[in-house]
Amino acid sequence: MRRRVGTPPVDLRLDGEGLELKRLWVDDAELEGGPQGAPPSTEGGVKEGSPRFSLDEEGALYIPSSVLPAEANKPFEVKSEVRLEADKTRFPTLLSNGNKIEESVVEGAPDRHYAVFEDPHNKPCYLFALVAGPLASVKDTFTTKVSRRKPLLRLLNNSFT
């Protein structure tokens, strides 16, 4: 998340029910002692609490299924830039809202890859989603009647589980 150039800084509040703060980073530096001005269990960082997902002793996300779906459910509108990073074997497909603007192997970790997605349009936060997992896909194009454009269509299926 980045603050728009020319806007004043404001507090960022991350809230949720039944979540426990595990770690908090700002500008790639971990904050010791949690966020300032709030008890550690109420704001920011890596959180735990969903019955489907949990963190192991090292803070890594543990997913009992082969596909990781996630969504947000708050009503405010946002533009987003999301970086997903995962093990290439367990999660070969990384998807989120918007356009994929970057993807590569993680430097120094050849068994991991990442993808960056940018959604330049304000959308209600509940429309945000991400999916990561072994998904099969079928691709095709078609020609539109009006503009004669040939957009790429890609259908994905969780056929490996």
TrEMBL record:
Q: A single GO molecular function, which one?
A: zinc ion binding
Region described as Disordered? 28-52
Which SUPFAM superfamilies does the entry link to?
Leukotriene A4 hydrolase N-terminal domain
What is the protein name for this chain? Uncharacterized protein LOC113147512
Originating organism: Cyclospora cayetanensis
